[in-house]
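Tutorial handout. Part one gives the primary structure; part two gives the three-dimensional structure as C-alpha cells.
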Amino acid sequence: MQGIYLLAVLALFSGCGAYYYDYYVFALQWPGSLCPSKALGGNGTLQTKQCLLANNITSWTIHGLWPSVNVSYPNFCNDSWVLDEREILPLEDIMRAQWPSFDGDDFIFWTHEWTKHGTCASLEPMLYGPYNYFKFILQLLNRLDVFKLLGSKLILPTNLHCYNYTTFAAATKAIFNESIILGCTWDPVAKQQHIAQIEICLDKKFSMNCNPDKMVLSEPLNDGVAMPEVTPCYPSQDICYFPLDHSYNV
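Part two.
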C-alpha cells in the first residue's frame, strides 16, 4: 500500500521542480490586529472597504502551513492539482471561523494556500490531498491553542496597555521553545505596532523541535491575498495585542 502511495506522489510531482523540505512553518494570525489595519489602511487613512470579521471568529486563525527548507520554501509544486471545493465541503463551516481571509472570499484564500503550499506538503501522507491537508491543519490549530497558551503567561488581549517587547517575546519563546517569529502591523497614526502573525517552526513530526535560526518571516500576509503588510516586530517598540472588534464587520 505504501508503494502505491509513493508511486502516486511521484506521478503527481514529476516535472514540477524542487519540492524538498525539512521543516514546516505554521503561521497564525490575530484578527484583532488585521481588521483595524484593514479599516485604517497602510497609510492610516480610512478605507471604504471594511474588514470582514464575522461573529464566529473568536480567536487566533490560520494563515497556513508551509513546508520550508533553510530560509526559503518550495512552492507551487503542482499547478495542475486544482482545489475542488467539493473536496473540502465537510470542513468549510469550521474553516470560515478558523481559516478566514478577512476579504470576504475565503475560497480564493484557501485555493492560494493549497496551490502554493499544500501541493508541496502532500509528500507527507497525513497531508496528502486537499481534504487531509486542511483537516490536519485545523487539528493542529486546536492542539496549539495560542490564545490559551499566551494567557497562561498572562499575555491577554487588552485595550488598556501594550506589552513591552521583551516581555511579549520572552513569553512566546517560553511556550514555543524559541522556534518562533513575531510579525506585526504598524499603525502610523497611533505610532504603534500590533501583533498580527506568529510563525511557529515545527519539525517533520510536527513538534516544536527545530532550529529557529533557519527561519525568516517567510511569507508576508499580503502575498497573494489583500492584507496589510506584516513585518518582523520591532524590538524597540511595545507590542499591542488588542481584543477582537466585530464592529468592523459590515
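Part three, for discussion. Residues 1-18, 219-226 have pLDDT under 50 and may be disordered. The first helix runs from residue 2 to 13.
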